[in-house]
Design brief:
- The complex is a heterotrimer of chains A (260), B (338) and C (297).
- Chain A has 260 residues and is α/β, with parallel strands linked by helices.
- Chain A folds into 2 domains: 178 residues, 3-Layer(aba) Sandwich (Rossmann fold); 70 residues, no CATH class.
- In chain A, 40% of the residues lie in helices and 25% in strands.
- A 6-stranded mixed sheet of chain A has the order 6-7-8-3-9-10, with helices on both faces.
- In chain A, a hairpin with a 2-residue loop joins strand 4 and strand 5.
- In chain A, helix 6 runs parallel beside helix 7.
- The longest helix of chain A is centred in the C-terminal third of the chain and has 18 residues.
- The radius of gyration of chain B is 24 Å and the shape is globular.
- The N and C termini of chain B lie close together (11 Å).
- Chain C has 297 residues and is an all-alpha fold.
- Chain C has 11 helices and no strands.
- The two termini of chain C are 31 Å apart.
- Classes of the chains: A alpha/beta (260), B mainly alpha (338), C mainly alpha (297).
- At the B-C interface, helix 1, helix 6, helix 7, helix 10 and helix 12 of B face helix 5, helix 6, helix 9, helix 10 and helix 11 of C.
């Protein structure tokens, strides 16, 4: 893809003291594209998410390098400026939907609070929230429920609805379907594909499950111990892996191994 | 929710019954003769015997207990052996002063403790946090009666900043008489537009309230800190940050709302403790509340009065816990959905 | 899950001494608290040997030394009968902590068996024990102790009994929780199915698991008992003259307080310091031993 990437990461270093956990030379995410970031647990995928959000310091890590959104440099920006980006332009969803929502708040309350934080008026917020719920195929009155009253799949969809309502350009999805059953998983994946098509959302899909990555993603990057081993179109990387590690990963996924 | 409340009330009633029984038994373990006290130091043996009959002290203990229970239900808490008045009316007269003190102290404790706890939680392990932790522990280790004496010495006697004793300056009763409506001097002077009296009651309230607030403030700061630190690593907090909320909101709103459940329980706990703690400071500050009444009852071995005071405070404590249980359930859906 | 790398726990291979020092270094509360407590215990033990006027802790009076301000001869001044306050305060360290220990031992002796019975046997026994415990827990501790101490003859013994009588319920509740959770575990059910005697299960599984929370609770409670005991003595319900009880000393000093502040100040400071030391120790122990604690203030 030529032209300005939506999200471009180059020479990104994330470290805990002297221990380096992420070292990405180059990673790009384009408009209306789903990029899979595949690798085992501990390979640094989640830390990358934190770094992009500018939240690596909350776990004690330091970040250096360049992360740009539509050409604008994010690293080095003060926290107050970064807060404008969070949610509003770069959204994130996490692995365990049942813990992603504060149990003492109704889920709709979190959505409207986030919207109002980023400038919506009270009525705008409730309208956009309801609309986003419909877009993720949930009845808007589920917003009055507490997290304990919704299923994992429903909660994950509310999380996606948050990103939709805020009109985020980039969605960082960190293992969003790992905690869900297969059928619910399929519905969430459909939803993500739909978002790419309808509003051109760029999605960074992080997962250790290569089968899901193969099914969903346009391009794939394989990560191991903080380094990107290879990246390219999904069909290419997954059928003709350039790196032996990728081949190893593929071997361990029965379905894929049998289709090559 | 209504079912929850009903169940809690039922439980509270059972507990109160138990409380009455236990208190009654404890107080009647008395060596010494309440009838003799009632009849007075120069009573003859036959007068004492008549007194015993009159007071119902010649009946078996169980019968006394049952009649006492019946009495409580109908508002008869016995007659004070010392004052010869109804214990309940005595209590109603002295309770407002103590309640005023305790409530003021709790408000102070929350106003100080919660922000301090949050402040501490935002920088765990750093010098400010260590200092605050140490300070909180000082708060809960403080002998109340000693603190009262020291503060009184420093602020009243030496610095002459605050009044030493009493609920208000007695002289004001002549120039700006206080009309008793609720029995709470602060509220009554407010209602009556009696500004000089209001000022006086407030300045008199400061020292005792600070003393009583020490333990709750320390406890609340500790609880807030611990609870906030416990949830701050959870995914929903990360989520809130990822949505762009600032640290102030993260701690003060999202983490704090979760902390309220245990903190509210702690507040009920310290309400009970503080009500009893006032017993210790009332004599020092000449505060005409439950404590002074209790001290007089103890000195004269006035069993009905001792019984009445103990019961009153215990029931107030059960009531506070009940209120907190209900409030907790209102804030935290996980409790009522259990 | 995202998170910082965990601090390496001291592994079993590390020598005990080093592991202990690591634990202490990471835990300033425990270190300071422990040191202070050791100091207080030391003072309590050697008081008769180190104080300048050992007789003053007893019935000695010195009419010509009455109410002297702190000086080189009398570091804390003298009281209303001329006794050296420094000596009396140091001797006081033999009074309050001892009461606390006796009270807590009684609380454990009563509370632990009841808690084990309730948690392990369950059913009606549990119901009964817990209802009675709940009633006692419905009282703020000082209140019931006060009522009891008020009707008993004023002495240290009465105070000890009064406080012990109200303190045991907390331990019933604590142990019951432990016992119930252990009793519910699969391996215990397996033991029962195999016919292992209940006593054996209690002694081999429940009690060892309970030691840590009990230890933490006891160290946290010492401060509370000391404060309660000194409060009761302050009210005149406990120790009587000439026992060098700190609460009593504060109370005696009250009427002389305005010009002669030292009678009240130093004993009270001793109470504060002792309660503070034990609370620090308790906190530190809890941080160290109880990784997942339910917060009991």
């Amino acid at each position: 893809m030529t032209g300005l990437a939506r999200l471009a990461i180059s020479d990104l270093d994330v470290s805990f003291g002297s221990r380096q956990v992420v070292s990405i030379a180059d990673l790009r995410l384009d408009r209306a594209e789903i990029l899979g970031l595949a690798g085992e647990s501990g390979s640094g995928k989640s830390m990358t998410t934190l770094a992009v959000l500018g939240l690596a310091h909350t776990v004690g890590a330091t970040v250096s390098g360049s992360i740009t959104l539509d050409g604008q440099e994010l690293t080095g920006l003060p926290q107050e400026s970064l807060r404008d980006f969070r949610g509003r332009r770069i959204a994130a969803i996490f692995q365990s939907p049942s813990t992603a929502f504060n149990p003492v708040y109704r889920v709709g309350s979190i959505v409207t609070k986030a919207l109002r934080l980023h400038g919506a008026t009270k009525s705008e917020a409730s309208d956009r929230a309801a609309e986003a719920m419909r877009q993720v195929l949930l009845p808007p009155d589920l917003m009055r429920r507490y997290p304990s009253q919704l299923s994992g799949g429903q909660l994950q969809r509310v999380a996606i609805a948050l990103a939709v309502a805020l009109r985020a350009e980039v969605l960082l999805a960190d293992e969003p379907t790992s905690a869900l059953d297969v059928t619910v998983q399929a519905e969430v994946l459909d939803l993500l594909r739909d978002l790419r098509a309808s509003i051109g959302m760029s999605i960074l899909f992080i997962s250790h499950d290569l089968a899901v990555v193969a099914e969903l993603c346009d391009r794939v990057a394989v990560m191991r111990e903080g380094l990107i081993l290879e990246q390219g179109p999904a069909s290419q990387v997954l059928s003709a892996p350039a790196h032996p590690y990728t081949a190893e990963l593929l071997q361990s996924v029965p379905k894929l191994a049998s289709t090559t | 929710m209504p079912v929850f409340v009903a169940r809690r009330i039922a439980l509270a009633i059972v507990v109160v019954l138990g409380v009455i029984v236990v208190t009654f038994v404890v107080v009647h373990v008395v060596p010494g003769d309440p009838a003799a006290t009632w009849a007075g130091p120069h009573a003859s043996a036959s007068q004492i015997a008549r007194a015993r009959k009159y007071l119902g002290l010649d009946r078996p203990l169980v019968v006394q207990l049952v009649s006492y229970l019946g009495g409580i239900a109908s508002g008869n808490w016995g007659i004070s052996i010392h004052t010869h008045r109804s214990v309940l009316s005595d209590l109603m007269t002295v309770a407002p002063a103590s309640l005023e003190l305790v409530i003021t102290a709790l408000v102070l404790a929350m106003v100080a403790g919660i922000p301090i706890g949050l402040f501490s939680a935002r920088r765990p392990g750093r010098p400010a946090d260590q200092l605050i932790r140490a300070g909180s522990i000082v708060g809960i280790s403080m002998p109340i009666f000693w603190m009262a004496l020291i503060l009184q010495l420093v602020f009243s006697q030496r610095l002459k900043l605050l009044p030493a004793a009493g609920e208000f300056s007695p002289g004001l009763l002549f120039t700006h008489p206080l009309v008793k409506r609720t029995g709470f001097p602060v509220i009554d002077s407010l209602l009556g537009g009696n500004l000089p009296m209001l000022g006086s009651t407030l300045t008199h309230l400061i020292l005792p309230a600070i003393v009583v607030a020490a333990y709750p403030a320390g406890l609340i700061a500790r609880m807030v800190r611990a609870q906030v630190l416990e949830v701050i690593g959870d995914t929903h907090i990360l989520n809130a940050r990822a949505l762009g909320f600032g640290e102030r909101q993260i701690f003060g709103r999202f983490a704090m709302k979760l902390a309220w459940t245990p903190v509210a329980a702690a507040i009920a706990l310290v309400f009970g403790y503080s009500l009893v703690n006032t017993f210790l400071v009332e004599s020092i500050f000449d505060w005409p509340g439950l404590g002074s009444y209790a001290a007089a009852s103890i000195a004269t071995l006035d069993t009905p009065a001792i019984l009445g005071v103990t019961l009153f405070v215990a029931v107030a404590y059960v009531g506070a816990n009940l209120v907190v249980d209900v409030v907790q359930a209102a804030i935290d859906p996980r409790i009522r959905l259990r | 899950m995202i998170g910082a790398p965990t601090i390496t726990p001291p592994d079993a291979a590390m020598p005990r001494g080093k592991a202990l020092r690591r634990g202490l270094a990471a835990n300033p509360l425990l270190t300071v608290g422990g040191a202070l407590v050791l100091l207080i215990v030391f003072v309590a033990i050697v008081a008769p040997l180190i104080v300048p006027f050992p007789g003053d802790a007893g019935t000695a009076t010195h009419p010509f030394e009455v109410l002297k301000a702190p000086s080189a001869a009398h570091w804390f001044g003298t009281d209303n009968v001329g006794r050296d306050i420094f000596s009396r305060v140091l001797f006081g360290a033999r009074v309050s902590p001892v009461i606390a220990i006796i009270v807590l031992v009684i609380a454990c002796l009563v509370g632990i068996p009841l808690g084990v019975a309730a948690g392990f046997l369950g059913g009606r026994v549990d119901e009964l024990i817990m209802r009675v415990t709940d009633v006692f827990l419905a009282f703020p501790p000082l209140l019931l102790a006060l009522a009891l101490a008020a009707v008993l003859p004023a002495s240290l013994t009465s105070v000890t009994i009064a406080i012990a009588a109200v303190w045991w319920p907390w331990y019933v509740r604590l142990i019951r929780g432990q016992a119930a959770s252990v009793a519910g575990r699969p391996y215990v059910e397996a033991c029962r199915a195999l016919g292992v005697s209940r006593m054996r299960i209690i002694f081999r599984h429940i009690l060892p698991n309970s030691i840590t929370p009990v230890l933490v609770q006891v160290s946290l409670d010492v401060g509370g008992v000391i404060l309660t005991a000194s409060a009761l003595s302050f009210l005149g319900l406990g120790a009587q003259d000439p026992v060098p009880d700190w609460g009593l000393m504060v109370s005696s000093g009250q009427s002389y307080f305005t010009p002669d502040w030292w009678m009240v100040t130093f004993p009270g400071l001793a109470i504060l310091l002792t309660a503070f030391a034990f609370n620090l120790l308790g906190d530190g122990l809890r941080d160290l031993l109880d990784p997942k604690r339910s917060f009991l203030p």
